[in-house]
Design goal:
Elements: H1 2-24, H2 27-38, H3 40-68, H4 73-102
Helix pairs in contact: 1-2, 1-3, 2-3, 2-4, 3-4
Length: 103
């Protein structure tokens, strides 16, 4: 569970670097990054799916498990399912939003 915490806290700066790199890559990339983060379906998918489900929910699950000092099987199963769902949402977002905004 502590490894999940480390991976989540490592993923946040990497996502930030992805969009920072797009902002500084040029006018088209900056506009695509702004649109992908603030407009329509893809912005909602990023903020709710990637950040909410993929990062905050597993982080919350890990913190609850660490606080109670009890690693029940339900915590492990729920955390695993949420992490896998978050990874799939992130992949979906990167592939499809990248094709729409940069393709």
């Amino acid at each position: 569970m502590v490894l999940d915490l480390r991976v989540i806290l490592t993923e946040l700066p990497l996502l930030a670097l992805l969009f920072i790199g797009m902002f500084y890559a040029g006018a088209e990339s900056a506009n695509a990054a702004k649109a992908a983060l603030s407009q329509g379906f893809w912005a909602g998918l990023f903020w709710f799916g990637v950040i909410g489900v993929g990062l905050c929910l597993p982080l919350l699950t890990v913190m609850i498990a660490l606080k109670s000092h009890v690693y029940r099987i339900s915590y492990v199963v729920i955390n695993s399912m949420v992490v896998i769902g978050g990874v799939l949402i992130l992949r979906y977002y990167i592939v499809y939003a990248g094709q729409i905004y940069l393709g």
